[in-house]
Each structure stands twice: as C-alpha cells, then as structure tokens.
Amino acid sequence: MLHLDDDLLIGRGLHRACYRHPRDPALCIKVVHNGDQTESQREQAYYRHLQGRLTDWSLLPRFHGVCTTDRGPGAVFDRVRDADGSTSVSLEACLTTPATLDRYRQALPAALAQLRAYLLRHGVLTMTIKPRNIALQRSDNGSALRCVIFDNIGCADWIPLALYSRRFARRKILRRWQRFEARLLAEHPEAFRPAQDNSRSPRHTPAPLFHLPARKAAAKDTTTDAARAPSTRPGAVPSRRS
Ligand SMILES: Nc1ncnc2c1ncn2[C@@H]1O[C@H](COP(=O)(O)OP(=O)(O)O)[C@@H](O)[C@H]1O
Ligand SMILES: [Mg+2]
Questions:
Q1: Which residue of 2, 214, 234, 239 pairs with 113 in a disulfide if CB–CB is 3.0 to 4.6 A?
Q2: Facing residues of 31 across strands?
Q3: Residues 33-72, buried b or exposed e (16+ Cβ, 10 A)?
Q4: pLDDT band at 176 (very low <50, low <70, confident <90, very high)
C-alpha cells in the first residue's frame, strides 16, 4: 500500500485530490475525497477505450491503472510537469495571476489552438472544458508552451454515439470548444487583448479583442464541421463535473 503524505499533495478538485507518486516523479495519483468512484470509473472506461486507438498522448496524460493507497483506491496518471520538473500551472491559475499571465500571454493563443486541433484530430472527447482542468506545460525558457487537458475527459451520454462515430465526435468537440472559448473571452478579455499601443493618441479606439486563432490554425480540418455544428450559447449551463 502506498502512503500519501500531505507533502505530496498537488491539488484538490471537487471530487479528487491529486498527489505526486511517492516512488515515481513522473506520475501522480488521484484519490476521491468527496463522493464515490462513479466518475473515476467512467473516466477509466474512456481511457481504456482510448488506449486501444490513441497513439499521440502529447496533450493528454496517460492512465497507468489503479493502486492501493492509505487514502483509498488511487488512479495513476502521468504528472504534467514543466522541463524543470515542477508541476505545471493550470490555465485558471495563469488567468488569475497577473505575473503568470504576463509570462504566458504571448504563447497562450497558439497553445490553445494546438489543443483544439489535437482533440479534433484524435477524436478525444471532453465534457465541459474548464481552465482549471488544463495545465500549461512549458519548456525551460517558456518559449514552447503546451496546453494539456487532464480532467473531464470522455462522454457521459446515455447513448454515446460520439464514441463510435467520428462525425458525432467532431461535432461534440467543436461545441464544447466553442463554449469554452466564448467563456474564456467573456471572463478574461484582458488575457486575449493585444498589448496596449502607447504610440497612438489617447483618442485612438482600442484594438478589438484578440481572437483565438483556433479556427484559423485548424481551418483545414474544422471548417466544414464548424459550418455544420449547431449554434451554441456562450452561457450554456456548465456540467456538474469539476
Ligand atoms: N495529471 C496531472 N498532473 C498534474 N497535476 C494534476 C493532474 N491531474 C490533476 N492535477 C491537479 O490535481 C487537481 C485535482 O485533479 P482533478 O482531476 O481536476 O480532480 P477533480 O476530478 O476532482 O476535478 C487539479 O486541479 C490539478 O491541480
Ligand atoms: Mg478537475
């Protein structure tokens, strides 16, 4: 049985607490601290589905099975780490901490666009996409930034057509992403605004909001779906999940 010391705690979500693995710095262990194992089991079933077909795990931590801990059953995943070994910060922490935002701001839109393209390319399903469930993984100097999604993966539909139909999967991913993007821009406009141009007169109209280059970057494989996808409401009710 693994002993999970408080010192190993990385963070807590609504349902699970995540600890560094006591024996392997590349891994983390999630244990339920609130509720039952239902969501973890659903997530693990989706991971088993993915393990049969996904070859590129660059933006999704791998699942390594379950273990026994002194805090209950643990689910073992890759720990999202920066090049210096520290646990990567979440997008939420970045957006709410001005100093961190300043450091990541420039690379953020392209990293988000890359995550969107990844989900679409590989048909990786998500439920509500939230900034707190995305880690910003950076290389040593921060020049290369990756958005890694680590929670709310999969599909909770009664009839999960998206698991078996690429077309359904792409439509679902686009819908989720559009809601996420709309919420990001509504709640954190400052993060996606171009830097102030002080050389212009004060009466100069401020530049329009920066648009995530997602659609442009992934235009090749999403234009048709975007056109087909039903319209979405930015304020759509978020899922129960964390
Ligand atoms: N793979 C991971 N690598 C690094 N940190 C993680 C990883 N997964 C989760 N975390 C951290 O643990 C916290 C809780 O995990 P999460 O899976 O979001 O739990 P919940 O399902 O309760 O929302 C996250 O907010 C994050 O700080
Ligand atoms: Mg979470």
A1: 214
A2: 17, 74
A3: eeeeeebbebbbebbebbeeeeeeeebbbebbebeebebe
A4: very high
Residue nearest to atom 9 of ligand 1 (CA): 18
pTM of the model: 0.84
- Does residue 233 belong to any structural domain of this protein? no
Among the atoms of ligand 1, which is closest to the Cα of residue 34? Answer: 22
Ligand with minimal distance to 18 CA: 1
Say if residue 35 is in the same domain as residue 98: no
pLDDT in tens, 16-65: 999 999 999 999 999 999 999 999 999 999 999 999 899 999 999 999 99
In this structure, the residues whose C-beta lies within 6 A of any atom of ligand 1 are 10-16, 18, 28, 30, 61, 77-80, 87, 90, 132-133, 135, 150-151, 242
Q: Name the burial class of residue 176, with classes exposed (0-12), middle (13-18) and buried (19+) by CB atoms within 10 angstroms of its CB.
A: buried
Domain that holds residue 40: 6-78
User: Among 15, 30, 41, 132, which is best to mutate for testing ligand 1, by the most ligand atoms less than 8 A from CB?
Assistant: 30
Question: Which listed ligand is nearest to 57 at the C-alpha?
Answer: 1
- Beta partners for residue 145, in sequence order: 138
Query: Is 240 contained in some domain?
Result: no
Ligand number, closest to the Cα atom of 85: 1
Is residue 208's pLDDT more than 60?
no
Domain for residue 43, yes or no?
yes
Same domain, 67 and 173: no
Asked if residue 141 and residue 100 are part of one domain, the reply reads yes
- Number of domains the chain is built from: 2
